[in-house]
Amino acid sequence: MLPPFPDIGTETGLQDDAPLTEIPAWARKGELVLEGSATPPWLDLDAEQEKDDGLIHETPEQRQEALNQSYSQGVQAGIQQARATMEQELREQLHQEIYQHSHEQGQTAGYQAGYDAGLKKSVPEMDQQITLLKQTTEAMQIWQTALQHQQLQELRELVCALTEQVVLQELKLSSETVERSLLSALSALEESSETPVILVHPRDREFVTMICTEHDIKCRVMDDETLSPGGCRVQTSQADIDASLDRRLKLAMSTVREVFTDAG
């Protein structure tokens, strides 16, 4: 702290308006340069006075050291603040990444668990549906086979009925049919001196007698109302050849049924 500026009037005893005739004691110490180039006497203090004035007088080295220390403290404070900020940001980022990763893992695990549970639950239902589908398919195949068989049976009966009607009509109307039946039956007889008996429908007796005469066949023609027109039976003591229309028709129908049986 600087010493108080002396009161000129008090120390010198001069009045404010008295002329200055001599240099005061405080002004004579040191070299007073009125031009103001020298240090004022009240600032030219000795070491003892500097020690007692209560002020801290720093050297340039001390100032530089203080600056360096302050700079170092500022740098350390900045580093700590930056580190704290970075740690906070990294902590938040890490927390976000952990949360996101955990969320994805949880979502994946939940999806897998749900998928496994749904699959486990649906497998028995799928097996049941597959079994039901197989049973339905087998039933359809059985039904289709039965339907085809039934249709085939019905078709066979229809064809047989139509064939029977056509054959009967043809045999009844054709005289050649009667002749073929008679000659076929006579050819089946073994050679014998016995005179065969030919049984025919009364309607065919005259026609059969004419045929036997034309072919010089020795026989006896007799009526048999149980026979259908167009057929005959040839009998001897050793043989009985049925060339009736009914038998020939049964043979024809048997052939037709065999054809349908092979097709089925």
UniProtKB/TrEMBL annotation:
One Pfam family matching this protein: FliH
Name of the protein described by the UniProt record: Flagellar assembly protein FliH
Function noted in UniProt: Needed for flagellar regrowth and assembly.
Flagellar assembly protein FliH/Type III secretion system HrpE domain sequence ranges: 129-250
PANTHER family (alphabetical): FLAGELLAR ASSEMBLY PROTEIN FLIH, YOP PROTEINS TRANSLOCATION PROTEIN L
Domain of life: Bacteria
Family: Belongs to the FliH family.
Coiled-coil positions: none
UniProt GO BP: bacterial-type flagellum organization; protein transport
Membrane-crossing residue ranges in chain numbering: none
Assigned keywords, A-Z: Bacterial flagellum biogenesis, Bacterial flagellum protein export, Cell projection, Cilium, Flagellum, Protein transport, Transport
GO cellular component, one term: cytosol
Matching InterPro entries: Flagellar_FliH/T3SS_HrpE, T3SS_Stator/FliH
